[in-house]
Design brief:
The chain has one domain (about 10-120). The radius of gyration is 16 Å and the shape is elongated. The protein has eight helices and no strands. The chain is mostly helical and about 130 residues long. Helix 7 (about 95-100) runs antiparallel to helix 8 (about 105-120).
Length: about 130
């Protein structure tokens, strides 16, 4: 691993903190516009991280989109969905946030691993130490 270019997600796999499947799902979710809805729901106080994990599991099993899954699970109502959809604030979500939301790793552990990752690759000029990279 020393001297090798590595993204944060690859680092977490190398450290056996997450699986390749966890990373693939998080990357797919990161690119999906529905991530904005999940974050907006948390920001507005409608959902907690545990709820997002339930919704994501249901999404995997059912093939439904975030809003549909949340309503089916009765975690959000139509009024809350309308508020979320009207929220136009765009945010770049980091891969670590998504991994925590889907339950692949805990919040404290991801923060610890990010610090370790940044310290290890501090001198690398090619590395962009952002959690939103694979």
């Amino acid at each position: 691993m020393e001297g090798k270019f590595m993204f944060f997600g690859e680092y977490l796999i190398y450290k056996e903190k997450i699986s390749q499947e966890d990373l693939n799902f998080a990357l797919k979710f990161q690119k999906d516009e529905n991530i904005m809805n999940a974050i907006s729901a948390i920001t507005n106080g409608y959902l907690k991280y545990e709820d997002i994990s339930k919704i994501m599991d249901y999404m995997r099993m059912s093939g439904l989109k975030f809003n549909e899954a949340a309503v089916n699970l009765r975690l959000l109502n139509n009024e809350q969905i309308e508020k979320i959809l009207s929220d136009k604030e765009k945010v770049q979500h980091q891969i670590g946030e998504i991994l925590v939301m889907c339950g692949a790793i805990g919040k404290i552990e991801i923060e610890k691993e990010l610090r370790s990752f940044l310290l290890q690759f501090q001198g690398e000029t090619l590395l962009q130490p952002q959690m939103n990279a694979a």
